[in-house]
Amino acid sequence: MKLKLLVGAALAPVLAAGAAFAQDAEYEGPVTAVEDVIVTGQPAMRNRTDAVVPTLSYDLDYFQRFEPLTVGDALRRVPSVTFLSDVLESDGARLRGLDPGYTKILIDGEEVPGSGVDRSFFVDRIPAELIERVEVVRSSSANRSGDAVAGTINIVLRDALSLDGGYIRLGALMFPDSDYGEFGGTYGAVWGGQVGEGRLLVGANVQDRRNPKNKYSIRYDEPGGTIDNTEVQTDVRDGTDYAFNASYEVPLAGGMLDLSGVFVRTDRFQDEDSLEYEGGVETRANLAVVNDNDLDIRTDNLSLRGRYEREMFGGETTFKLGYATIDDEQYEFEAESEYLRDGTPFPDEDRFTLDSETIDIQDEEWKAAIEHKIELSGDMELEFGVQANWKTRDSLITETPRIRFNVPNAPAPRPAVPPFGASSPVLGGDASIEENRIDPYVMVSGNSGALRWEAGLRYEATDVTITDRTVPAAQQVTENDYGEFLPSFSLRWRLNDTDRVIFSAARTVRRPNFDRLSPALLEEEFGDSDFVGNPELQPETAVGFDLGFERRLGRRGVVGINAFYRDITDLIEETNTGVEGSAGPGTFIYTVDNVGDGKVYGLEFDLSTPLDFIGMESTGVFLNYSWLDSEITDFAGERRFNGQSDFVFSAGFTQDLPTWGAAFGASYRKQGDAEDRVLTEEVLTSYGADLEVFIEKQIGENIVVRLTGSNLLDSSKDEVFDKFDSVGDQLARDYDEYEIETEAAGPVYQLVMRIAF
């Protein structure tokens, strides 16, 4: 937190200097009227961009009428984005169904750190109210980070050009906790305008978040076998998100200075309570276990960015400096009471167990870049530069000594929870990772009649230092370095005034997960077998192709189809060291290495158009369908990439009623099944469909009121778990446990009013 304050203090004088020394030049640039931001009198469509790289662009008004709370909620209406989150949640975006680590998340074109071990950033951390637009970039360019195997999602926040005026957002939410529901609020304000010689935008947002679910599990000794137990669980996640963003753009010394920042705090409490019944007979006499599992989460995201552009050296030079950090603190407490260890039923308790764990992750990144563009002859442009990134990630995972005792022999009163200072680090839980990157690049682009193209080459040099303070001194510090050449090429061919073809080819990378780099030995990590990380892992690499066709429909509509293919090599997969594990014969120590290859491919269709070509100019429709598939060979044979849904479909409409100043619409979404297979466990995940609707009424010139309902089909998440004690048992299908779990939640309603001024 001290570092955050220091950075903010350091940038404040720069902002002041920008205002004080701005040139006497009239500010130029388009400014959006606030009425156009909060009220739309016609259907909102996908943008048809001029980018050479295949890019889908969606302005806020494409999402806003359904009032998404977060960027994750908004992304449910774009092609090829899936989630494996709980019902009512949209955290780790899976572009083309792949693990979130394969998708690069950018904010205003810049990388941001996430707390996850797979380097992913949870998109539900950014309130939807902050965004100007969302871009789905299907391929890669030399001037962007190459760790985007599946593609890139660029979240563009409102900047100083976004508004000329302001508005206030006031809303109430009703969550499905009971027949009468639980209530929360959502509040926000944004203002943009001229300040000195530049333009300033400031915004703030506060919203209550609540996700109440009911879960039910049945556990068998094997498929079709005897029921071991059932579990009835409630899971309520309750909290508040706070966000603040600001942007200032001002002429300075013959160039343009742009300063911006965003801060988001996620404050949540998760309360899971469950009752486990022996043999599936849900009576007091068969109550076996009562479990209370609480998790307190506070996550702070801060991103500060400075950008200065100026014409020099025969072209345009851009200087960038940025700082981003995530501070994730979690405290988890689990208390379990057992009742049938001696056959005496509830309420006579037999054994009590208490565990607690604290997680503190701080991930900081400094970024700097110098980039230069220069016009060449023949409608060509040369761009080159150097981008640098310095990451430091500190993880401290501690747990208090377990309290476990048999109640008949226990002291009275029951022992209290140990104080925070009594905790000690878990194996692999006290570690630091320093990752420094220097990425030079060069790119040439051109325009020749109906053809536009770009070709580039990027080199990413990475130095990694891993310090694990939970292993013997001789193993605590390990170093690794690697470099990758990443060529890219994109072509856009305009066939006529309505049709165009877009092709792209690029080489990309995915860096190893943080938890796979620690040399700590984790006992019984996979069933009864152990695991040790590999600090010398190299990144996965991929060669990818995209080929798409796009047609304009009428004045504003667009329809497109795109085929994609990724050939991924050096996959990071678990391997058996052959060394006997800590549990004795039949168990082993596993590690990870670059040993696998895989292929990912699919077709993506999207349609977004008003129906003006049939005389219904006030009706807009959208339809997205993606067929997703992949191939990979692991220890048990061929499978898809873990967690990849076989399809994702979304469709909807909006209907404006101009005479009444009103509108309504609906959105439907369905995601296909996803399978996971890892050592000693397999999971099949299925989701029900989701339906959202809205009704909107404009009041006067500058007020709009919307009522929205989401999850109106009471969507459920169903999971089937195949669990085994060892890989040998997994291959032989000798089950330790077979579990079927269902979680469900009811509708969420939202009433929102925006007032422009």
UniProtKB/TrEMBL annotation:
Membrane topology note: Multi-pass membrane protein
GO cellular component: cell outer membrane
Highest taxon listed in the record's lineage: Bacteria
Every TonB-dependent receptor plug domain range: 59-152
Keywords from the named record: Cell outer membrane, Membrane, Receptor, Signal, TonB box, Transmembrane, Transmembrane beta strand, Transport
Cleaved signal peptide residues: 1-22
Span of domain TonB-dependent receptor-like beta-barrel: 290-712
Alphabetical list of InterPro entries matching this protein: Beta-barrel_TonB, Beta-barrel_TonB_sf, Plug_dom, Plug_dom_sf, TonB-dep_rcpt-like
Subcellular location: Cell outer membrane
Family from the record: Belongs to the TonB-dependent receptor family.
Protein name: Outer membrane receptor protein involved in Fe transport
Species of provenance: Brevundimonas halotolerans
